[in-house]
Backbone:
């Protein structure tokens, strides 16, 4: 792959992701190191970002790795917390002992990161194939007394009772049944992990809120006991209840509107007309009939622990976050990550690894 052309594209502001680097590999590292030695400042910084993307911290070399670490440390000292976007899955643990959290999740090789950089790295966990999703975990600093963990240990990602898709029948119904069976196994693994964490830390919360559909779940454990488990995909498996759910409908419960409430909404050539009227009437009827909203993992997290999307300048921060490797990460190496910035700041003044060095 022509890495000089890729570096020049980054300098020119072209958008890239790890998918665009799928044809690049270890054989391209020497070319990037040559650019890093001989290119102008912008190209050198682009080459540094690409080295990290293809080979992780080890590919940077001693000088560049030290430079990046110094830059991160300087930014940690002055970072203002910013709400985390697209935080679909996370654990919330009421502890200030980061080393104990790393041990409990089987994590190693922690690298300090700003909250913004940790978020950026985590948001790329599902870009790419192989062990991209299970190699690395982001552990937050202590936020209002809670440590948040984004990701699962390798053992939870690869439970023994899950069947591989390659072994499934070609018959669609049997494939669907196998998928449901795997999901049931994974729900049990997540519950067991939450309970085990609560034995060590006194309590542990697990939240899932999909931004692609309505999927949501939450699991609360205290002192080795399961207090509450709810999953929209399997409400029949629910355990317990929470006071925070009072006054809400659960996600699987239908909104109790009168029969035929939307039958007379006229369909027009523009489908948006019908949709807008449907939404307006739905909201009006809900208000008139005093029908409660549905709760989800976001609602529960905000009520009883900490929601990453609500973090801000008001949040009390202790320590710093880290990116750490799981067993899969130790075995297969860092997943590919093309970093656009070392801090999260709204455009147009977003700092970047491609900017001039400020160390």
Residues:
């Amino acid at each position: 792959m022509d890495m000089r052309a890729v570096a020049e594209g980054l300098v020119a502001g072209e958008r890239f992701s790890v998918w665009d680097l799928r044809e690049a590999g270890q054989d391209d590292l020497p070319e990037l190191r040559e650019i890093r030695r001989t290119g102008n400042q912008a190209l050198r910084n682009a080459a540094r970002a690409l080295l990290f993307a293809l080979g992780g911290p080890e590919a940077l070399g001693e000088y560049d790795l030290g430079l990046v670490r110094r830059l991160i440390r300087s930014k940690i000292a002055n970072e203002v917390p910013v709400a985390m976007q697209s935080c679909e899955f996370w654990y919330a643990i009421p502890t200030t002992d980061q080393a104990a959290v790393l041990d409990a999740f089987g994590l190693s090789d922690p690298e300090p990161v700003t909250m913004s950089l940790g978020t950026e790295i985590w948001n790329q966990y599902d870009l790419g194939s192989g062990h991209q999703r299970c190699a690395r975990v982001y552990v937050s600093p202590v936020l209002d007394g809670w440590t948040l963990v984004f990701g699962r240990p390798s053992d939870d990602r690869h439970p023994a009772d899950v069947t591989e898709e390659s072994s499934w029948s070609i018959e669609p119904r049997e494939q669907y049944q196998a998928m449901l069976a795997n999901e049931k196994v994974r729900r049990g693994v997540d519950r067991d992990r939450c309970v085990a964490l609560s034995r060590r830390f006194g309590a542990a919360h697990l939240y899932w809120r999909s931004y692609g559909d309505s999927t949501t779940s939450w699991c609360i454990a205290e002192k080795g006991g399961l207090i509450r488990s709810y999953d929209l995909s399997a409400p029949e498996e629910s355990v317990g209840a929470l006071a925070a759910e009072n006054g809400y409908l659960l996600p699987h419960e239908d909104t109790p509107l009168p029969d035929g409430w939307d039958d007379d909404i006229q369909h027009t050539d523009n489908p948006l007309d019908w949709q807008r009227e449907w939404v307006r009437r739905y909201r009006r009827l809900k208000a008139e009939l005093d029908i409660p909203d549905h709760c989800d993992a976001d609602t529960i997290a905000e009520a009883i622990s900490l929601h990453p999307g609500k973090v801000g300048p008001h949040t009390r921060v202790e320590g710093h976050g880290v990116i750490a490797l799981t067993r899969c990460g130790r075995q297969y190496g860092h997943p590919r990550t093309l970093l656009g910035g070392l801090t999260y700041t709204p455009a147009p003044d977003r700092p970047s690894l491609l900017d001039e060095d400020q160390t």
